[in-house]
């Protein structure tokens, strides 16, 4: 802090020679070094630059030896103005109705003030002569500026780069396409001083220190400015945050439909998972694909054909045997394409359509009655050591059939000979030609 009155320009609305205004600001406390004016009057001061001030000192005539009971000022105030016309009263001394007389004033006030012009406005002069004002010394002290820096800067999405330090003024961050806004929280290093607050503006909007300001993000580069004006001194520091909202080549949903039925998909959809499997029954000839782009501006193809986001695409014919691969490709103007792959597998039908056991022309009764999903049976017969077993596959083209290890064409009889008295086990294996998976039907035949 310093006495700004030693550096500016001083004048008065009136003075009595030789006691001009300059004698009141020269710092010399002598009887002749004073200003004298006719009340009402003002001692005017223009600082050499804009200061924040909060203390003023007025030394009256008792300071330089005059009778303190008679030569003190009655009523005067410190005022400020930015146009030398409209004045704001900052502090007032009134000795007219008080038992405690202020012979020399050394006073502080809050909040601080910063004006282009100041004046001591005397409305009642000396006790002994209210029409005369006399000031031996006037001082106006400035306050050092407080910090225009932030103590922290945080964002609720993305990572600030580089890590925050108060003297680094430019930062970057990137966020996913799904992030449509970001909350910026700036905290002033000196949020308040001398009864006034630092002023923070995020993109021009005033934001309290430590409070979050939401900023909407467009796809691409977004520049966010954080301006910090010190609580004292009116010094402004700008921080700049450049946030890049990434474009999206992702999907937000993907499903496979058989007609209007959504088929189970493995794993469950996640936009960052790019491979899926769906099983369909052997009778399904085609499917539809319904995919939704995260960014509506993206384009999409399904197996090379242009598709509309959120609208079922197809029908997509399925391979008669084996897997069908469907590629969903999402493209944007600013990113490489992203491919999602759906592998559609036919469920293997490894069942028998029918199974018969005959003794000559006589069909034996199976227990329980035959069902394609029932895999164990029993029956009995007497007086024979040879039976005919005929398995018929539900999917004859996709499977191989063996009876006790011997290959049998679907629907063709196999002769089981050399049967023994007692229980004879017949194993009928239905094996996938494609995967090697198999189902085994067991028939226990009791010979007596």
Automatic annotation (TrEMBL):
It comes from the Bacteria. Pfam families: Cadherin-like (PF12733). Residues 150-245, 254-347, 362-445 form the Cadherin-like beta-sandwich-like domain. InterPro entries: Cadherin-like_domain, Galactose-bd-like_sf. This is Cadherin-like beta-sandwich-like domain-containing protein. The lineage of its organism: Bacteria, Bacillati, Bacillota, Clostridia, Eubacteriales.
């Amino acid at each position: 802090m310093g006495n700004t009155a030693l550096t500016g320009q001083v004048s008065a609305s009136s003075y009595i020679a030789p006691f001009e205004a300059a004698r009141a600001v020269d710092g010399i406390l002598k009887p002749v070094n004073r200003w004298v004016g006719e009340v009402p009057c003002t001692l005017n001061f223009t600082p050499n630059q804009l200061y924040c001030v909060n203390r003023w000192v007025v030394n009256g005539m008792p300071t330089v030896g005059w009778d303190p009971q008679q030569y003190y000022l009655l009523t005067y105030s410190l005022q400020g103005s930015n146009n030398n016309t409209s004045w704001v009263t900052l502090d007032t001394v009134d000795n007219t109705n008080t038992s405690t007389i202020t012979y020399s004033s050394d006073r502080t006030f809050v909040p601080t003030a910063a004006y282009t012009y100041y004046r001591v406005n005397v409305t009642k002069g000396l006790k002994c002569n209210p029409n005369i004002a006399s000031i031996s010394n006037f001082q106006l002290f400035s306050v050092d500026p407080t910090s225009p820096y932030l103590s922290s800067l945080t964002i609720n999405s993305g990572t600030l780069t580089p890590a925050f330090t108060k003297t680094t003024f430019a930062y970057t961050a990137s966020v996913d396409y799904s992030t449509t806004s970001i909350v910026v929280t700036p905290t002033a290093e000196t949020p308040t001083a001398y009864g006034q607050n630092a002023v923070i503006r995020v993109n021009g909007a005033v934001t309290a220190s430590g409070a979050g300001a939401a900023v909407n993000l467009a796809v691409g580069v977004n520049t966010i400015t954080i301006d910090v004006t010190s609580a004292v001194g009116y010094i402004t520091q700008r921080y700049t945050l450049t946030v890049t909202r990434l474009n999206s080549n992702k999907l937000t949903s993907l499903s496979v439909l058989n007609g209007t039925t959504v088929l189970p998909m493995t794993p469950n959809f996640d936009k960052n998972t790019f491979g899926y499997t769906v099983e369909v029954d052997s009778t399904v000839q085609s499917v539809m694909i319904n995919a939704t782009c995260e960014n509506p501006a993206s384009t999409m193809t399904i197996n090379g054909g242009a598709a509309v986001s959120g609208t079922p695409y197809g029908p997509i014919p399925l391979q008669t045997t084996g897997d069908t691969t469907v590629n969903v490709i999402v493209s944007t103007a600013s990113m490489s394409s992203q491919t999602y792959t759906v592998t559609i597998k036919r469920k293997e039908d490894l069942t028998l359509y029918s199974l018969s056991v005959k003794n000559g022309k006589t069909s034996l009764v199976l227990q329980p009655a035959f069902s394609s999903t029932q895999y164990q049976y029993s029956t009995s017969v007497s007086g024979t050591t040879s039976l005919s077993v005929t398995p018929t596959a539900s999917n004859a083209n996709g499977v191989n059939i063996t009876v006790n290890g011997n290959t049998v064409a679907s629907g063709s009889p196999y002769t089981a000979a050399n049967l023994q008295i007692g229980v004879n086990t017949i194993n009928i294996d239905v094996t996938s030609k494609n995967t090697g998976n198999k189902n085994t039907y067991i028939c226990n035949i009791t010979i007596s």
